[in-house]
Protein: Sodium/hydrogen exchanger family protein
Organism: Clostridium tepidiprofundi DSM 19306
Amino acid sequence: MHILFYTGMILISGLIMGKLVSYIKLPEVTGYLLAGVLIGPSILGIVPVEAAEKLNVISEMALGLIAYSIGSEFNFSHMKKIGKGILLITVLESLSAVILVDLAMIFIFKEKLFFSISLGAIAAATAPAATLMVIRQYKAKGPLVNTLLPIVAMDDAVGIIIFGISMAITKSLVSVDVKLPMGKMILLPFGEIFLAFVVGICIGIILSIVANRANGEDQLLTIALAVIFAAIGLSVELNISALLVCMCIGATVTNVVPNNKRLLSIVDRFTPPVFAVFFTLAGIELNISILKDVGIIGIAYMLLRVLGKMLGASLGAKIINSPKTVQKYLGFTLIPQAGVAIGLAMIAETELPSPYGAKIRTIILSATVIYELIGPLMTKIAVFRAGEVPLSNSPKSNINC
């Protein structure tokens, strides 16, 4: 079959399954993943893996757009308003999850260092969509929600930075072409990260200047997409993180361009079908047959990541003297993991030797489905027990997330 036939099948199945899971109050991304598993080689075999591989360019586009959107939340004036305390909690809850997973993989499961670092780095990412859905549904308000909202806005940005550092180190560990001195091996990854920041900022400035001369929204959309896609391609050529570059583009635009909302939101007109294909492709490429080989490690990853998020969030909240409800329940709202984590897993798969990359992707995709199922429920429990749901929205009969 022609590749466009498969593309149509991917979009249709993702749309249908996304709609179906919404009836049981689950995020659309969960439906996309399940649709991919259903039509992929694991079950029905409608879309073969070979066809999915030909659409990998869409995955690269989606990742760049996700990173651009995350970077747009990095407004310095807004960060000053929310204070250093929120940033501290974000860093601690992210790093705690990373460190716990790293240590367990290295010392308990005796996995290779590059595999452990790569898997641990993905543990930092959190998906805000499911959490925000519950907050909006129950109109929750209070210290817990006020602390949570800026954290989920910054969490993925912190996660991408951690992942960028980890993958740069991983590439040094798996390289067999040359034996680098230890000092150079340590400094090289940070040089790549610095270059990614410089390239992203420069391209962001260029986009800011060119966008001001755009005539109409159609032209503005074309310019924004052209710059983002060119930045992704340039990043690949320079062997630096496209995620960090695109995140820096978004961050530069949001801090440099006055009245930047139009430029930042214009790409949203293009993203829905791209994201639907991206997440459904992830499900198609999920190799269910190797789940038995990564089962224990996968379960450990899921539990340790949640434990790390809870410990880090609680510790950060205690350090800045947050209310007891925040200290106790904030970690429960940080469980979901979806889009960014899937993207990072797919990048790790391309960077790591076989079969380690496939293991990471399988673990993350499996964990994503579990997290997206239990995450909304845990968020609901947290905001109810914190007493931040108005009485009119919390009748005893209201038990659905």
Observations:
- The radius of gyration is 21 Å.
- Residues 38 and 44 are 6 Å apart (CA to CA).
- Residues 63-267+292-390 form a domain with the Na+/H+ antiporter like fold fold (CATH 1.20.1530).
- Residues 395-401 have pLDDT under 50 and may be disordered.
